[in-house]
């Protein structure tokens, strides 16, 4: 099925939500979702890095790896380039856009080598997206990540004060909650999807 | 074995790594942010508790603000005079240290003293409990008792006691005031660390209205304002307000208070003792508010130790300096 950009965005945002449907990027999902404010900062950093990584990896793949016949090197090359790029961007922001740096500075290095970022670059290639489609897909995925993590942070803020038995306090109840949210999102699969 | 492929991949990956490394190296030199070196030095003398008592986000924020000349040098209540002096040296300025403070709970209504109005089953958090009709306690002014202060204390100086009131460890408390701002009821406050007496009630009700909801609440009788020898207390909105500048820590208000709403932080109090120089003039008998001195006129008086609280008022009025305060610390005779 051929998808238009709008459908790609919606698919990445809801139907194939990277956290709740693909179970990728679970470490920031649980690690940074303790409060809404930190999860918003994390989401902004993810959006930023995901977009950059998609562009760079797409160009690298089509301009270098494919012509040279080195497709099997993509994992190493992507990680290397994304890590270096984020390092560079961090320095650039620190120097020239101080406000943006202090808003998401600490989350940038955290997200650099996250599996969610790498997964998006691979999906772009596996689905044979062109650059526009890849951009839309990255945007949708980042938005989906933000939706999941901010939603979940709000739930966890409530869980903190709820009278929960000691055995379930903290991560156990968070995992149970995540499973329930994930179940809810499975309802979207009947719509359409990228597969 | 396809050697050309191996070489090709080695060159590609290695070359890519090398180029990126060089770019990052150049960038780290070109884009280096010049940090005021005084900022780093100020940061190194700050305590690093990141408590926010200075009003800046953490010690880094405060150090940056000082280096930029935007912050006063003595705002760090944790470091106290020592840190203020070091910052002054770095900045080349004279500083007067801020008075060290300590957080105290100004509510004594635990589960035995202050009954509940209703059973609360909601979120176990002071701020949420306080939103529901002012909390489950019958006294709507008092401590809610779910220990929000315990969670916000950056140095773990607060724990919950048996009676569902927080207990503050004064040795650990750094006086940052985080608990004071976070408490939904305002039942915590900062007092100067050297002061010993404070009122531990926040109820603005009076008389029976207080008695019905708490056995240790201030009933606004105003006795303390009348017995205070230096006029440091005045009634305001049904609560005595203490002027810490005037207070001499004599402890008379704490012992006279009918509801025991004052707290005396002194570990122990001295007792008055009358030596043979006494002429028996009786001035001390008149001034003593606790009837702790007895004796016939013209003869040497004596102190009843069980009644004396060591306030030192008799020492001040004795015309022949025949009275000494002896025994436990708390304050010395000189401060009176």
User: What integer value in Å does the Rg of chain A equal?
Assistant: 18 Å
Q: What spatial form of chain A do the alpha-carbon principal axes imply?
A: globular
- Label the structural class of chain A: mainly alpha
CATH architecture level-2 label of the largest domain in chain B = 2-Layer Sandwich
Task: Give the low-confidence spans of chain A.
Answer: none
Number of domains of chain A: 1
For the largest beta-sheet of chain A, the strand count, sense and barrel status come to: none
Helix content of chain A: over 70%
| Residue runs with pLDDT of under 50 for 5 or more positions of chain B | 330-336
Q: Can you list the strand order of the major beta sheet of chain B?
A: 1-4
Number-wise, the strands of chain A total: 0
Count of DSSP-assigned helices of chain A:
9
Number of domains of chain B: 3
Q: How would you state the average pLDDT of chain B, rounded?
A: 84
Most extensive interface, residues per chain?
A-B, 21 and 21 residues
Verbal overview:
The complex is a heterodimer of chains A (195) and B (336). Chain A has 9 helices and no strands. Chain A has 195 residues and is an all-alpha fold. Chain A has one domain. In chain A, α4 packs across α5. Chain A starts with a helix and ends in a 9-residue tail after the last helix. The model of chain A has no long low-confidence stretch (mean pLDDT 86). Chain B is of the alpha+beta class and 336 residues long. Chain B has 3 domains: 37-91, Electron transport complex subunit B, putative Fe-S cluster (3-methyladenine DNA Glycosylase II, Chain A, domain 3), CATH 1.10.15.40; 101-264, Alpha-Beta Plaits, CATH 3.30.70.20; 270-335, Alpha-Beta Plaits. Helix content of chain B is 30%, strand content 13%. Chain B contains 12 helices and 12 strands. A two-stranded antiparallel sheet of chain B has the order 1-4. A two-stranded antiparallel ribbon of chain B has the order 2-3. In chain B, β10 and β11 form a beta hairpin. In chain B, α2 crosses α3. The N and C termini of chain B lie far apart (97 Å). In chain B, 34% of the residues are buried. Chain A binds chain B through residues 64, 68-70, 73, 76-77, 80-81, 84, 87-88, 91-92, 94-95, 158, 160-163, and chain B through 5, 8-9, 12-13, 16-17, 20-21, 23-24, 27-28, 31-33, 121, 123-125, 128. Chain B: Keywords: 4Fe-4S, Cell membrane, Electron transport, Iron, Iron-sulfur, Membrane, Metal-binding, Repeat, Translocase, Transmembrane, Transmembrane helix, Transport. Chain B: The complex is composed of six subunits: RnfA, RnfB, RnfC, RnfD, RnfE and RnfG. Chain B: [4Fe-4S] cluster 1 binds at residues 51, 54, 59, 76. Chain B: Part of a membrane-bound complex that couples electron transfer with translocation of ions across the membrane. Chain B: [4Fe-4S] cluster 3 binds at residues 153, 173, 176, 179.
């Amino acid at each position: 099925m051929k998808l238009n950009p709008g459908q790609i965005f919606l698919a990445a945002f809801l139907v194939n939500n990277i956290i709740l449907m693909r179970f990728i990027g679970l470490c920031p999902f649980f690690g940074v979702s303790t409060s809404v404010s930190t999860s918003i900062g994390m989401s902004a950093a993810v959006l930023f890095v995901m977009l950059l990584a998609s562009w760079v990896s797409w160009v690298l793949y089509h301009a270098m790896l494919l012509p040279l016949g080195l497709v099997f090197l993509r994992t190493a090359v992507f990680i290397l380039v994304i890590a270096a790029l984020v390092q560079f961007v961090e320095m650039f922001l620190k120097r020239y856009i101080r406000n943006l740096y202090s808003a998401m500075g600490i989350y940038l290095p955290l997200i650099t080598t996250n599996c969610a970022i790498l997964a998006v670059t691979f999906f772009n290639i596996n689905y044979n997206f062109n650059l526009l489609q890849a951009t839309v897909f990255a945007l949708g995925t980042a938005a989906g990540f933000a939706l999941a993590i901010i939603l979940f942070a709000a739930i966890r803020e409530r869980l903190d004060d709820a009278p929960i038995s000691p055995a379930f306090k903290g991560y156990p109840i968070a995992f149970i909650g995540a499973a329930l949210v994930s179940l809810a999102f499975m309802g979207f699969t009947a719509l359409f999807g990228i597969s | 074995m396809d050697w050309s492929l191996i070489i090709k991949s080695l060159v590609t990956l290695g070359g890519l790594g090398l180029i990126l490394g060089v770019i990052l190296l150049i960038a780290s030199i070109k884009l280096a942010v010049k940090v005021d070196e005084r900022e780093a030095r100020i940061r190194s003398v700050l305590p690093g508790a990141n408590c926010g008592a200075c009003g800046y986000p953490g010690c880094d924020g405060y150090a940056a603000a000082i280096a930029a000349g935007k912050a006063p040098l003595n705002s760090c209540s944790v470091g106290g005079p020592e840190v203020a002096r070091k910052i002054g040296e770095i900045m080349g300025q004279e500083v007067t240290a801020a008075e060290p403070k300590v957080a105290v709970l100004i509510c004594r209504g635990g589960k035995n003293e202050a009954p509940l109005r209703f059973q609360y089953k909601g979120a176990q958090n002071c701020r949420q409990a306080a939103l529901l009709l002012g909390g489950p306690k019958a006294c709507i002014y008092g401590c809610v008792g779910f220990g929000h202060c315990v969670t916000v204390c950056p140095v773990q100086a607060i724990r919950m006691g048996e009676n569902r009131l927080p207990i503050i460890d004064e040795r650990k408390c750094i006086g940052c005031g985080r608990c004071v701002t976070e408490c939904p009821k305002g039942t915590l406050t900062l007092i100067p660390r050297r002061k010993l007496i404070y009122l531990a009630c926040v109820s603005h009700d009076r008389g029976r209205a207080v008695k019905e909801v708490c056995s240790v609440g201030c009933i606004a009788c105003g006795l303390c304002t009348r017995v205070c020898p230096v006029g440091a207390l005045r009634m305001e909105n049904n609560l005595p307000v203490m002027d810490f500048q005037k207070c001499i820590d004599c402890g008379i208000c704490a012992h006279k208070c009918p509801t025991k709403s004052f707290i005396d932080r002194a570990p122990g109090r001295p007792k008055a003792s009358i030596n043979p120089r006494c002429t028996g003039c009786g001035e001390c008998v008149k001034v003593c508010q606790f009837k702790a001195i007895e004796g016939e006129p013209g003869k040497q008086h004596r102190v009843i130790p069980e009644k004396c609280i060591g306030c030192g008022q008799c020492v001040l009025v004795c015309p022949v300096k025949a009275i000494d305060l002896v025994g436990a610390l708390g304050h010395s005779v000189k401060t009176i």
